[in-house]
Amino acid sequence: GSRSPSGGPLLTPSQSLDGAGGRRSGYITIGYRGSYTIGREAQADAKFRRVARITVCGKTALAKEVFGETLNESRDPDRPPERYTARYYLKFNFLEQAFDRLSEAGFRMAACSSTGTCAFGPEQGGPADDKIWTSYTEYVFCRD
């Protein structure tokens, strides 16, 4: 079989099956940073910025199986299939698309976590009536 430059075997998405012919179990974590602005009255029309980058953490073989060519591996090239990485990200920036791919591959959401903090407000030289908030959110998906 073919080997990667690091010496590990190369797997295609169709080869990432376990020895019994079923799908491998495992976890994939999706993360993203976001920001939004809420005015003085906390209006219902808060302004959200688009997601800049969706990060992927998990075993390389599982990430490649689910996301295929849309997985950007440039930050951790030649990672062996059975090793974990937290350095991949997706070439698209729509969370719904990532969730659809995970669901189609048999994953279910197991947990999620989000943090938020006021990063910039009038007292720090920001807009007079607005506060800019930043958040980091992670979704953990599993397949048994």
- Classify the secondary structure makeup into a structural class: mainly beta
> How many beta strands in the DSSP annotation?
7
Computed Rg: 19 Å
Q: How many discrete domains? A: 1
- Shape annotation: elongated
Poorly predicted sequence stretches spanning 5 or more consecutive residues: 1-17
The number of distinct helices, counting runs of at least 4 residues, comes to 2
Terminal residue distance: 28 Å
Helix content: 10-25%
Largest sheet: 7 strands, antiparallel
**H/E element string?**
EEEHEEHEE
Mean pLDDT: 81
Question: Can you walk through the features of this model?
Answer:
This is KCD12 protein. Residues 26-143 form the KCTD8/12/16 H1 domain. Keywords: Cell membrane, Cell projection, Membrane, Phosphoprotein. This protein has 144 residues and is mainly beta. The protein has one domain. It has helices at 60-67, 95-104, and strands spanning 26-39, 47-48, 54-59, 71-72, 84-90, 108-120, 130-143. Strands 1, 2, 3, 4, 5, 6 and 7 form a 7-stranded antiparallel beta sheet that branches. The chain is elongated, with a radius of gyration of 19 Å. The two termini are 28 Å apart.
Annotate the secondary structure layout.
Elements: E1 26-39, E2 47-48, E3 54-59, H1 60-67, E4 71-72, E5 84-90, H2 95-104, E6 108-120, E7 130-143
Tags for this model:
144 residues; disordered N terminus; mainly beta
Short description:
This protein is mainly beta and about 140 residues long. It has helices spanning about 60-65, 95-105; strands at about 25-40, 45-50, 55-60, 70, 85-90, 110-120, 130-144.
